[in-house]
């Protein structure tokens, strides 16, 4: 892939994530995306079959970026509590550092496209699901379906990230640690 090809594709994806985050998936026509990217509308169709393909590829790219960020430096041999705090701290860092990407990913997750595309993940792709399943199996976490455990764990992180990006809530390291700890506490099968 040539550098010009990569640059144009990247410009289109960056413009798309900005517009989707600002206007929603249906409120950002390809004409607006092309204009924001500084390319002609036809150029979009050289890289993407249609708008749905653009949305899908953007989502895949962002999922991959998030996975790499969250798992970088992860040690599956550490105790469960340390692994949990590591992964969820990394996830919170990603959400806070990438508010537009986070907003797009959330829009996609709750869209009909996102619901239709969900497939079971492999362990290598999803250390979070693997960790939640392991902690549930060891009765450290509540005996609930993985989707429920994820919702309980992600809830505090998502709420904090939204408050930060939408309302300007100032955050310090202590607030981040308290939020991750709250997620851990909510999952425990025997809260102290």
Automatic annotation (TrEMBL):
Location of the HTH tetR-type domain: 6-66
InterPro entries: Homeodomain-like_sf, HTH-type_TetR-like_transc_reg, HTH_TetR, Tet_transcr_reg_TetR-rel_C_sf, TetR-like_HI_0893_C
Pfam families to which the protein is assigned, alphabetical: TetR_HI_0893_C, TetR_N
Known DNA-binding region: 29-48
The organism's place on the tree of life at top rank: Bacteria
Gene3D superfamilies assigned: Tetracycline Repressor, domain 2 (1.10.357.10)
Coiled coil regions in record: none
Protein name per Swiss-Prot or TrEMBL: HTH tetR-type domain-containing protein
Source organism (scientific name): Geoalkalibacter subterraneus
């Amino acid at each position: 892939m040539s550098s010009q090809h990569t640059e144009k594709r990247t410009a289109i994806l960056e413009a798309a994530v900005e517009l989707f985050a600002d206007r929603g998936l249906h409120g950002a026509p390809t004409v607006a995306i092309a204009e924001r990217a500084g390319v002609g509308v036809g150029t979009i169709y050289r890289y993407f079959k249609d708008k749905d393909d653009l949305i899908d590829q953007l989502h895949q790219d962002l999922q991959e970026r998030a996975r790499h960020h969250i798992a970088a430096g992860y040690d599956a041999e550490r105790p469960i509590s340390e692994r949990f705090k590591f992964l969820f701290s990394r996830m919170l860092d990603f959400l806070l550092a990438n508010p537009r990407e986070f907003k797009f990913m959330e829009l996609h997750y709750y869209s009909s496209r996102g619901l239709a595309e969900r497939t079971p993940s492999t362990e290598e792709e999803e250390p979070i699901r693997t960790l939640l399943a392991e902690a549930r199996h060891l009765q450290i976490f509540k005996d609930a379906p993985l989707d429920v455990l994820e919702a309980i764990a992600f809830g505090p992180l998502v709420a904090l990230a939204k408050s930060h990006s939408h309302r300007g809530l100032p955050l310090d390291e202590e607030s981040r640690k308290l939020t991750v700890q709250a997620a851990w506490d909510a999952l425990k099968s025997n809260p102290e």
